[in-house]
Amino acid sequence: MKRAGSPHTAKLPEKRERMKVDEMARDNTVPETNKDYAIGLGRAFGGAVLFAIPLLMTMEMWWLGFSMGRGRLLLLMSLNFAILIGLSYFAGFEKTFSWWEDVVDALTAYGVGIVTSVIMLGLLAVITVDMTWNEIVGKIALQSVPASIGAMLGRKQLGAEQDTQAEDDRKQEAGYRGELFLMLAGSLFLAFNVAPTEEMILIAFQMSPWHTFALGGLSIALLHVFVYAVGFSGQESRPAGGTFLSTFLHFTMAGYGIALLVSLYILWTFGRTEDAAPAEIANMAVVLGFPSSLGAATARLVI
Amino acid sequence: MSDESLHQNEQRSGAARHTPWLEWCASGAGLLLTLCIFGFITWQAFDDAVSPPAITVEATNISSIDGGYRVMFQARNAGGAAAAQVRIEGALSSGSHAPETSSVVLDYIPGQSAREGGLFFTQDPRSGNLALRVSGFARP
C-alpha cells in the first residue's frame, strides 16, 4: 500500500532523514558482533519452538511426514524456502541489505527449523533410533516447514528493539505486490497449522451448503474488518481517494482469493483432494479458507 | 533518492566487513542441513517411494503371563508406500478344538519400516500351531 502521500510522512521529512543518518552512524561504528548474532540466533530458536509447537504435537503431522507424496513434500519445502527469502526481506532475524543476505538468512532459518524439529521430535519420542531413515527424515522434513517460518519470525516477535521504521519502508516500497506476498505467507502459515488434522475433513462433511455459504461470507467480512476497521496495530488506512468498493475489490477480495488458492494447494499437498467430488473439495476449501483468510488478514500485524 | 542509495551502499559494504564468524557457521550449517534434507527426500522420490505396501509379520517372542500367553510380533512393510490400519491376525490351532484367534490393528507402518505389537492367547502358542498373518490395510 502506498503511503508516501500521507500527511504524517510529508510533514516530518527532515526528522526522518536525521534518524536515518543516526542509524547509519551507529551501524558503521558498531559492527555486528558474535554476541549480537548469537542473541538473534537464540530468538530464532525461540520462535521456531513457539510457532511449531502446535504441529509438533499433532499426530497427523507425524504420519503425513512419511505417508505424503515425496514430490509434493519437495514442492512444499521449495515453496517454503522461497517464502523464507521473502520474509527475511520484510522481517528477518537480522537486518539485510542485499538479496544474497536474504538467501543466507533463509538457509540459516531452515537450519534452525531442522535442528529444532530434530530435538523436539526426539524429546517427544516421535522419532527414535530404531526407526528407519525414511521415516525419521520424512517427519523432520515436514516439521521443519513451520519451524523455519517460526525461526524467521522469531526476531520480530521476541526481539526487544525492532527496526520497525526500516520494515515499514520496505513494505511501502514493495507496494501492492508486497502486500499480496505478506497475505500469501500469513494465510499459508495459519492454514498449515490446522490443515493436517482430520477435523478439517470432518467439519467439511458435516456442514450443509448454507453453513459453507455463511462461513465463506464471514471469512470475507473478517478479512476486511481486521485489515481496515478495528484498529489493530499495523492496520492499514484506506488508500487515499479509494472508495469502499475499490478497497474491497483490491485488497479484501484479492486476499480471499489468495486464501482460497492457498487452501486448495494445502489440501492437495496433504492428499485430501484425491478422488473427492468437486463439491466436496469446494467445501473443504471454504472450511480451510477461514483460518487461511484470518492468516492473510493478520499477516501485516505479525510480520 | 541518490542520497539514499549512497547510504545503502555504505551500509552494504559495512555489513560485509563486519559479518561475524558465528553467522558463517550458522548459515553454513543451515546450508548443509537444507541440502541434506532436500537430497534425501529427492532420493526417496526416485527410490521406490510409491510401490504399494507389502507386509510380512513374524513372531519375535512368546512368553507366559498372568492369565495366558503373550506373542510379540514384528510387522515389516517392504513396500515403498505407507500402510494405515494394518490388521494383524493370529490363529492358534491345537488338536481337535476350534482355533483360538486374536487380532490387533496397527495405526501405521511407514514404507520400508517395521512396527511391533503383541497378541494374547489363553493356550500356550508354543505347544500348538500358531499362524500369524496380515489381513489388510488402508491407504493413508
Structure description:
- The complex is a heterodimer of chains A (303) and B (140).
- Chain A is 78% helix and 0% strand.
- Chain A contains 12 helices and no strands.
- The radius of gyration of chain B is 28 Å and the shape is elongated.
- Chain B contains 2 helices and 6 strands.
- With 140 residues, chain B is an alpha+beta fold.
- In chain B, strand 3 (83-93) and strand 4 (100-109) form a beta hairpin.
- In chain B, strands 1-2-5 form a 3-stranded antiparallel beta sheet, with no helix packed on it. Chain B has a 3-stranded antiparallel beta sheet with strand order 4-3-6, with no helix packed on it.
- Chain B starts with a helix and ends with a strand.
- Chains A and B meet through helix 2, helix 3, helix 4, helix 5 and helix 6 of A and helix 1 and helix 2 of B.
Keyword list:
heterodimer; A: 303 residues; mainly alpha; 12 helices; flat; B: 140 residues; alpha+beta; Immunoglobulin-like; 3-stranded antiparallel β-sheet; 2 helices; 6 strands; elongated; disordered N terminus; transmembrane (chain B); transmembrane helix (chain B); CHP02588 (chain B); membrane (chain B)
Provide a compact summary of the structure.
Chain B: The chain crosses the membrane at residues 21-43. Chain A is mainly α.
What layout of secondary structure does this protein have?
The complex is a heterodimer of chains A (about 300) and B (about 140).
Chain A: H1 7-11, H2 13-29, H3 34-56, H4 59-67, H5 70-91, H6 99-123, H7 133-158, H8 164-194, H9 199-206, H10 209-228, H11 244-269, H12 278-302
Helix pairs in contact in A: 3-6, 3-7, 4-7, 5-6, 5-7, 5-8, 6-7, 8-11, 8-12, 9-12, 10-11, 10-12, 11-12
Chain B: H1 2-17, H2 21-46, E1 55-65, E2 68-77, E3 83-93, E4 100-109, E5 113-121, E6 129-138
Q: Bin the strand percentage of chain A.
A: under 5%
User: Distance N terminus to C terminus of chain A?
Assistant: 15 Å
The name of the CATH architecture of the largest domain in chain B is Sandwich
- Compute the CA-based radius of gyration of chain B: 28 Å
How many structural units, i.e. domains of chain B?
2
In this structure, how is the largest beta sheet of chain A organized? none
Oligomer: heterodimer
In sequence order, what are the helices and strands of chain A, one letter per element? HHHHHHHHHHHH
Please write the string of helix (H) and strand (E) elements of chain B.
HHEEEEEE
Q: Report the uncertain regions of chain B.
A: 1-16
Overall number of structural domains of chain A: 2
The CATH topology annotation of the largest domain in chain B reads as Immunoglobulin-like
Number of strands of chain A: 0
Q: Which structural class is indicated by helix and strand composition of chain B?
A: alpha+beta
Helix content of chain B: 25-40%
Largest sheet of chain B: 3 strands, antiparallel
| SS element count, helices of chain B | 2
